[in-house]
Amino acid sequence: MDTINLLNLSQDELEKKLIEIAKKAMEKSYSPYSKFRVGAALLTAEGKVYTGVNIENASFGATICAERTAVIKAVSEGDIKYKAIAISSDADSFIYPCGICRQVLSEFDKGEMKVICSNKSGQYRSFSLSEIMPCMFEL
Ligand SMILES: O=c1ccn([C@H]2C[C@H](O)[C@@H](CO)O2)c(=O)[nH]1
Ligand SMILES: [Zn+2]
Questions:
Q1: 85 in Cβ contact with 45 (< 8 Å)
Q2: In a designed cystine with 118, which of 77, 89, 124, 131 is the match (CB 3.0 to 4.6 A)?
Q3: CATH at 31
Q4: What residues are annotated to the active site?
Q5: Which residues act catalytically here (predicted)?
Q6: Among 51, 59, 98, 100, which residue has the most ligand 1 atoms within 8 Å of its CB, making it the best to mutate?
Q7: How far is the CA of 50 from the centre of ligand 1 (A)?
Q8: Interface pTM, i.e. ipTM
């Protein structure tokens, strides 16, 4: 992954690029039960990208979302500062992170993190995590 390039992009170009990476990651989704593929691309403060997919389980509650897969990969590699996360799926409607993923992302947010929600055709809406996950603590 080219570290320098991503941080040199404009916000718009960066968001498009992250969606593209999330869409590509989606191909690895393990979702035999819902057949709903989700991909995520998590951009670190240093410009590295961790991808994630939803990983389902016969015991449905053991399913992990794409967003958390990406966070878990990043944290376990020592990366805990993030700029943005993009999310893609096959749906016509925009995909937004679930409550548990918002909570997990907020653990690492310093008020800067963007959440980029896209639809199948690549349109997107960008939010600050704090907009979609109001926090009871001062940031
Ligand atoms: O933001 C979301 C929403 C849903 N899913 C997954 C969980 C499950 O595998 C499938 C259906 O909800 O989509 C995600 O990975 N991220
Ligand atoms: Zn989730």
A1: no
A2: 124
A3: 3.40.140.10
A4: 67
A5: 67
A6: 98
A7: 17
A8: 0.99
Q: What is the pTM of this model?
A: 0.95
Q: What domain count does the chain have?
A: 1
pLDDT number for residue 3: 55
| CB burial readout 46-62, b (16+ within 10 A) else e | ebbbbbbbbbbeeeeee
Tokens of 60: 């449905």
Q: Which domain holds residue 91?
A: 3-127
Distances in whole angstroms, Cα of residue 52 to Cα of each of 10, 45, 48, 116:
23, 17, 13, 14
Residue 133 lies in a domain: no
Protein residue with its CA nearest to atom 6 in ligand 1: 65
How far apart, in whole angstroms, are the C-alpha atoms of residue 96 and residue 116? 8
Show the tokens assigned to 13: 């170009």
